[in-house]
Amino acid sequence: MVATADDMAQVLRAALAPTQLEVLDESAAHAGHAGAGPHPYGTHFRVRIASPQFAGLSRVAQHRLVYDPLRQMITQGVHAIAIEVLPPVHPAATPSSLQAPPSQNS
Predict the structure, then answer these.
(1) CA-to-CA separations, 42 to 3, 21, 48, 93, 101, in angstroms, rounded
(2) Which of 21, 43, 63, 84 sits at a 20 to 30 Å CA gap from 55?
(3) Structural domain contains residue 12
(4) What is the number of other CB atoms lying within 10 angstroms of the CB of residue 2?
(5) Strand 20-25 vs strand 80-85: parallel, antiparallel, or unpaired?
(6) How far is CA 7 from the centre of its chain?
(7) Residue-wise over 8-43: b if at least 16 C-beta within 10 A, else e?
(8) What does the sequence similarity comment in the record state about its family (predicted)?
(9) How many domains does the chain have?
(10) What is the pLDDT of residues 34-87, one digit of tens each?
């Protein structure tokens, strides 16, 4: 089975409930390099992810949380995963919090 970016995203969504997730297949850029498969896809990925489960963890622990659910894909031919842990997303300011205070002339 050749892994796809969609497969990887589905596994990560189920395991980490990310608030942001982008999975890119960068395999074509690695053609001819170690670990490149016979196809120009399915071996080298970039994962950009934010998850509440990363709070308070070291970078190594955060990366382990990403790698662990992908272990089966790794044993089936995924050669490299570049992980970018994104900062948590803060709730957008609500319109009411942006309103001017009431006038003192009322």
Answers:
(1) 5, 18, 17, 39, 55
(2) 43
(3) yes
(4) 15
(5) unpaired
(6) 13
(7) bbebbeeebebeebebebebeebeeeeebbeeeebb
(8) Belongs to the BolA/IbaG family.
(9) 1
(10) 555 555 557 889 999 999 999 999 999 999 999 999 999 999 889 899 999 999
The pLDDT assigned to 23 comes to 97
Is the residue at 60 inside a domain? yes
Cα-based distances in Å from 100 to 88, 95, 96, 103, 104: 28, 10, 9, 8, 12
Q: In the prediction, which pLDDT does 35 show?
A: 52
Average of pLDDT values for 98-102?
A: 46
CATH of residue 81's domain is: 3.30.300.90
Residue 24 lies in a domain: yes
Domain assignment present for residue 99? The answer is: no
Length of the chain counted residue by residue: 106
Q: Containing H/E element for 5?
A: helix 5-16
Does residue 79 sit in helix, strand or coil?
Answer: coil
Q: Is the backbone of residue 103 left (phi > 0), alpha (psi -120 to 50) or beta?
A: beta
pLDDT of amino acid 106: 45
